[in-house]
Write a structure and sequence with these properties.
This is SDR family oxidoreductase. It holds the Pfam family Epimerase. The chain is an alpha/beta fold. About 40% of the residues lie in helices and about 15% in strands. It has eleven helices and eleven strands. A seven-stranded parallel β-sheet has the order 3-2-1-4-5-6-10, with helices on both faces. Strands 7-9 form a two-stranded parallel ribbon. Helix 2 packs parallel to helix 3.
């Protein structure tokens, strides 16, 4: 079938585009950036999702049966702003969904995140897809994913003819992953808030790509948590890395971050304590039982694979 991938030259997009093309699909990669490693047979189109007319024109020209929407600001650059991130994440998503409806796209596959559930003290120990989406306004990524999911929920009511597969991913690890989360594991000591376990769930990047490919062609629609089996606490991660854990009371860390942010010593503000305390821990049963995919790596195996490939993480 014909598939258009927004964010096709991003971290996930490159692998998704390559995998779909290798499986015999006709693929159009839509991105602001030219591909660094073009894939044979894949058409690249220059698309800024913040431009409604450009998005509509690209989808009208491609006439895809399925759109895989990956375009988002995951790790903001130094010169980024909340307004720009909202324009890409939220307004850009609206442009993509509107164009899908306008030009008769059958299915949209959306890369969401477990962050859409939000970082809340009343999150259940294991969070399933029937829990409400409550992205935190203080975290742009979490807030924006929540807003996009609200759009999708509305579209399920008003336009059920547009099939949806919404993938809420845990922390993605891979051989070449280097981001804000993995930076936490590269530090000499791991940080933990006193009294908070707040485990991580991990998913290996090749599993994510395989899940997206199945979402394009498989029969299952709906919303699915994307994570390997099990979880790892900060203490367990530290043991695997052979590193000590610095345990700090929440009020003390909050005050230190407030001062550090004000003085320009850290990019993180006092709200970061919520992330350290209340990460949503994703239940993946629906992924396995309804969607029909069991990740090849558990959370522990994904972390071990990442740590093995990033020897510096072990100090």
């Amino acid at each position: 079938m014909k598939v258009l991938v927004t964010g096709g030259n991003g971290f996930l997009g490159r692998s998704v585009v390559h995998g779909l093309a290798s499986a015999g699909h006709e693929v159009v990669s839509a991105d602001l950036q030219e591909p660094t490693r073009p894939v044979d047979g894949v058409e690249h189109v220059h698309v800024d999702v913040t431009d409604r007319a450009v998005v509509s024109s690209a989808i009208a020209a491609a006439r895809p049966e399925v759109v895989v929407h990956l375009a988002a600001v995951v790790t903001p650059g130094r010169n980024s702003s909340r307004e720009r991130e909202h324009a890409v994440d939220v307004t850009g998503s609206r442009h993509v969904f509107d164009a899908c409806l306008e030009h008769g796209v059958r299915r949209v596959v959306v890369s969401s995140s477990g962050a859409a559930y939000g970082y809340h003290p009343d999150n259940p120990s294991w969070i399933s897809e029937d829990q409400p989406v409550r992205g935190n306004p203080e975290f742009a990524y979490s807030h924006h994913k929540g807003l996009v999911e609200a759009m999708l929920a509305e579209l399920r009511e008003t336009h059920p003819e547009l099939e949806q597969v919404v993938l809420r991913s845990g922390t993605i690890l891979g051989a070449d992953v280097d981001n804000q989360i993995t930076a936490l594991f590269q530090r000499p000591r791991l940080l933990k808030i006193k009294g908070a376990e707040s485990p991580f769930v991990f998913i290996w990047d090749t599993d994510v790509v395989a899940i997206i490919q199945r979402a394009v062609t498989g029969p299952a629609t709906g919303t699915f948590n994307v994570a390997g089996d099990g979880a790892l606490t900060v203490d367990e991660i530290a043991t695997r890395l052979g590193k000590p854990v610095l345990t700090i009371p929440e009020p003390l860390l909050r005050a230190a971050l407030a001062i550090g942010k004000r003085l320009g010593l850290t990019a993180y503000g006092p709200e970061q304590t919520r992330f350290l305390q209340h990460r949503p821990v994703l239940d993946n049963r629906r992924l396995k039982e309804v969607f029909g995919y069991t990740p090849t790596h558990t959370s522990a195996e994904a972390f071990h694979a990442w740590a093995t490939r990033n020897a510096g993480a072990s100090g």
